[in-house]
Amino acid sequence: MLKLYHGKTSVCSAKVRVGLAELNLPWDGTILDLGAGEQNEVWYLKLNHKGVVPTVVNGDVRVAESSVILEYLSDIEGSGALMPKDPASRAITRMYLSDCIDIHAAINTLTFATSKRQQILQKKTAEQISASIERMASPANALKRRDIIDNGTASSHVTIAFFVLTSLFQQMRHALSAGQWMQGETFGLADIALIAYVDRLDRLGLSSLWAEVPDISRWLADCRARESYKTAIEAYAGPADDDARAARADGNWDMIEDLWQDYQLGHNGSGK
After folding, report:
1. CA nearest 207: which of 224, 194, 225, 220?
2. What's the burial of 246, exposed, middle or buried (CB within 10 Å: 0-12/13-18/19+)?
3. Distance from chain centroid for Cα 231
4. What is the rounded (10 degree) CA torsion for 118, 123, 128, 132?
5. Topology of domain 2-75, CATH
6. Rg of the chain's alpha carbons, rounded to an integer?
7. Share of the chain above pLDDT 90, in %
8. How far apart are CA 125 and CA 108, in angstroms?
9. How does residue 271 score in pLDDT terms, banded at 50, 70 and 90?
10. What's the pLDDT score for residue 78?
11. Is the pLDDT of residue 272 over 80?
12. What is the pLDDT of residues 36-94, one digit of tens each?
């Protein structure tokens, strides 16, 4: 049986759980306490040297990186069960999967630059924060976290996140104007790859980021209506409306609204 090492609210873990649900694959799981840094424990680093989740183990096969896991799961279920059949559409799906590395980094940035940063600063001493960052397996991730904790929304990583999300929303505008899902009328890997990321932004109270692309809100609602969302995301993270309400109270959008609008004005006015 497939073994999934994952985080309860980790977006990359969530998208793999959605894939497992859509494929109706049996699996067993171990939830890591990411807040406590369990992903940096020696035993887990032997499975995933980057110290990130998720990781899938299937017998002697170990697969890391959530987008790679999704395609692997689709393949073992039978000839790319969730992939389009024609080569051009398959290539487009793989480009979305590849883009997820940058998209995840952008979501991580906005998560930690807003209310998550406030929570960390309120709950931990400077020494505890430094110790937590020093335990991170990836030096690049540690440097990024340090910069965001120190600088918040003034971090250069926020500008990078805006670039990535502007590109994503442009792609989604084009794709969703042509059909219900990211590649027409069939729900597939491209949708599974993106749902957890867009869901997180909404839970952060940042749905205004795509105010110019209403089809994204329609697509998000359609994704949330699927049983896979309910079992793979909502069952772990709780109701999205509750998170979004709390995020609005925390003022997440207020923290970045002017920065986002300034970025859009500097890049052809509207981000369209």
Report:
1. 220
2. middle
3. 17
4. -60
5. Glutaredoxin (3.40.30)
6. 18
7. 90
8. 22
9. very low
10. 64
11. no
12. 999 999 999 999 999 999 999 999 999 999 999 999 999 887 656 788 889 999 999 99
- Taking the C-alpha atoms of residue 160 and residue 202, their distance in angstroms, rounded to an integer, is 19
- E runs forming strands in the chain: 2-7, 27-32, 55-58, 61-64
Contact by Cβ (8 Å): 141, 149:
no
Long-range contacts of 173-178, Cβ-Cβ distance < 8 Å, separation of 24 or more = 173/212, 173/213, 173/215, 173/216, 173/272, 176/213, 176/215, 176/216, 176/218, 176/219, 177/215
In this predicted model, what pLDDT tens digit does every residue of 152-200 receive, in sequence order?
Answer: 999 999 999 999 999 999 999 999 999 999 999 999 999 999 999 999 9
CB atoms within 10 A of CB 86: 9
CA-to-CA separations, 236 to 14, 37, 92, 144, in angstroms, rounded: 9, 19, 30, 27
Q: 78 phi and psi, to 5 degrees?
A: 140, 95
CB of 74 closer than 8 Å to CB of 23: yes
| Cross-strand pairs, 4 | 29, 56
